[in-house]
Amino acid sequence: MADIARPLARYSAYARRGDFIFLSGVIAVDPAAGRVITGFGDLPDGIGPTIGQTGEFSVDAKDGPILAQSWYVFDRIRATMEDAGGSMADVFKLVQYFRNLSDFPRYNTVRRMFFPDTPPVSTVVEVTAMMPSDAILIEVEATAWLPVRG
Fold first, then answer.
1. In whole angstroms, what is the distance from residue 99 CA to residue 72 CA?
2. Is the model's pTM score more than 0.90?
3. Average pLDDT rounded to a whole number, residues 51-72
4. 13 and 4 Cβ atoms separated by less than 8 Å
5. Any idea which architecture 14-145 has in CATH?
6. What angle do CA 79, 60, 125 make, to 5 degrees?
């Protein structure tokens, strides 16, 4: 349960209603450390090169924040789904909020890693701000179908 998306205020990370799992919007914040994920250096070792880190400062400074936040958000969604008894394959809908829609192509390369087969149905929206700070570039809300077993 340590890696699930942790709410920053008084709300649930996810809720089950019948065969559906509803995840709250997930942002790239590590509440335990009290920090926003801002680049490749904030991710576990070895992740950066798998999601596009080049080692070139000018490229990584530009692409790093959205790539790192995208990976972090999807990794938290993955962990939350596993905590609920499911997997990423159970996610069928995403609502994605962007501070800047020009980040979508880089985000989409990371999303494809977490959904290599059939991508979820999606809604993409550009917004002017997200909590808790302007450093947040993406927020993703997920819905999954996970039949109750038993």
1. 17
2. yes
3. 97
4. yes
5. 2-Layer Sandwich (3.30)
6. 55
